[in-house]
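Troubleshooting entry. The earlier prediction with calcium ion gave an output that would not parse, so I re-checked the input for stray whitespace and re-submitted. Clean input:
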Amino acid sequence: MKTKTLLQTFAFLCLFNYSFAVDRIVQENGPSGTFSTISAAITASVNGDRIIVHPKIGGNPYIENITIDKSLEIVSATNDVRYRIQGNVVITALNNRTVTLIGAHLVSGDISGATAGWRTNVNIMGCILDGGSINFNNQYYVSVVSNILESGSIILSHGRVLGNQLNNEATLIQIANSTSIADDTLNIVANITPRIFCSSNIFLNIYNNFIRRNLINTVANTHSIEYTFVATQNKMNIINNTVVTPYSNFSTGRARYLSLSSPALIKNNIFQASQFSVSNFAPNAIVAASGNSSSYNYIMNTLVAYPAASTTDVTLTANPVNATTGQLVLPTPALNGADPSFEFYDLDLSVGDAGCFGGSYSLDNYFPITGSSRVFWLEVPFGVTTTGSPVQIKAEGFDR
Ligand SMILES: [Ca+2]
């Protein structure tokens, strides 16, 4: 009975907090009762409100710096059309606050966090940033889903990074200072990104990313997947990624496919060199001395300092993918070349392909980014067999 009473009390509190939640409409020259700026709507809001923003006529931006200091959801009034903002969006942290931003197009400015308050939940979905970065510190749990960043990076401590596209070669997905949850896991799945870097003691699932850079490397130590925390136990699953790394114009500090200070399970990946030059230095890999497991990877050039290599890893003499699209260039042994276990089968139920279009988390599920609604995550058992027992499936998506 005590439990029941507690539950009833909790339900009542939720009802009390959000029973007066309303939609606030932001519209240029809108009718009475609407707001002319997003900031004015936020000021008038209470926790749980939804702010619906009409894109301005002619694609003009709302010119304002926006501070979000309540639990709010901000979405577009027009299906599949993003509202434009010229300015920074700052989300103030507070324990249990949840802020959702869907379909914003920042023509300038960053989306970032400020001040302390674990755990602040943030969802950034279907947004475009022309100039800025998505940057959240250790106080935030951030779901970064289906965003396009033309020149900025994605920087966070906790959360997940799913189906984003970073278009500037100098940028990266960076995980740092992850201390709010011990033994946390972070999923980095199906992104198109120049690099992935982690300095935290955190477990990473790195699945189906297209990690690409094409210009001859002139900056030291710009490695495609870099994990600098030192541990003896496995800290990463690196599965079904396609890594395209350029030659470097110097030997020391050359770009590496992998630079890992902790062990990893490395499987079904493609490692390809871009921008060959006889006078430059080919990418290689440095992985932790022991504890790695490597299988069914397809690798251009012989890797040095890669003690994990197994008999199923294949060294290639011709590039297996198109360096721009990540699609396989046929014929290649990477086609149907993944681990043949059914857990790694492709969406067409053929034996899995190595690289970012192979397996259940195929890049095909996330691209192109359209700004429309999308199911972005399914929680299902790893490998479903038809033994007659029910299957638990949880799906997450967003709209507008
Ligand atoms: Ca296949």
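This one parsed fine. The longest helix spans residues 2-18.
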